[in-house]
Amino acid sequence: MSASSPTVAATDDISVSVVSQYLPNQSDTDKKQFVFSYTISIENTGETPVQLLNRRWLITDANGEESEVQGEGVVGQQPTIAPGQTYTYTSGSVFSTPVGTMQGQYQMIAPNQQKFWVDIPVFRLALPNILN
């Protein structure tokens, strides 16, 4: 299992970085089930706290099939991220192809109740060495 290099996007004072990893022990290539984990770090470089309210994802497999996922928070939480702090979590996705991409946005809210969207960079989920 080898992790990818981080992919990073910054929106206003929020930086989002992602590292993905193929999970061979949970995958079944004969049944076309390719399982990946991804670890996301959300850093608040601003001067006020922000709370993550919602997420939306666009998930694309190697055949160009797209699915959209929306929901509250991440991994069951709606964390508040203080200035200078980073919130990190790990989640996963199952693909029917050995390569796919994910991208999306987090909806945040500032103390003044202003809501804004933060980009999650496009990142690749791929079997190791499949693209070399």
TrEMBL record:
InterPro entries: ApaG_domain, ApaG_sf, Uncharacterised_ApaG. SUPFAM superfamilies: ApaG-like (SSF110069). Residues 8-132 form the ApaG domain. GO terms for biological process: error-free translesion synthesis. HAMAP family: ApaG. This is Protein ApaG. It comes from Thalassotalea euphylliae.
